[in-house]
Amino acid sequence: MRVIGINFTKMFGERFNKKAKELKIGNEINIKSIEEIESGPVKIKESLIEISFYYNVLYEPELAKVSFEGNLLMAVDPKEGKEIIKSWKNKNLDEETKVLFFNIILKKVSLKALQI
Questions:
Q1: Which whole number is the average pLDDT over 99-109?
Q2: What fold does the segment set 2-113 form as a domain?
C-alpha cells in the first residue's frame, strides 16, 4: 500500500474566545466512504482507492474549532483493494487497515492544521 496523494475539500478554523481557564482538546476522525477509482489514461498494476474522511479538533470550553474534509488516494494490491472495498460495504473494515488509514490522515492533516 502506498499513498498517491491527499486532497482537502474543506478546511475551516474558527476562534470563539481568547481566554480559557482550562483547556481540553478533543478530536474526531472518521472515514465517510471508500471507493475504487479508475487510473485514467495511465495504466498501473495496482488498484486505486479513494478514502473520503473528516477530521475535527475542538478546543474547549468553546475556545476554537478546526475542521478538515478530504480524500486520500492510495495504491493497493488489486486483491487487497477488493477486500477493503468489500469490508467497507459490509461496514466491517478491519482495525489494522482503519488504524493505517487514520495514521496517514493524521500525519497529513496535522501539518496542514499548523498553517491555519
A1: 92
A2: Bacterial Protein-export protein SecB (3.10.420)
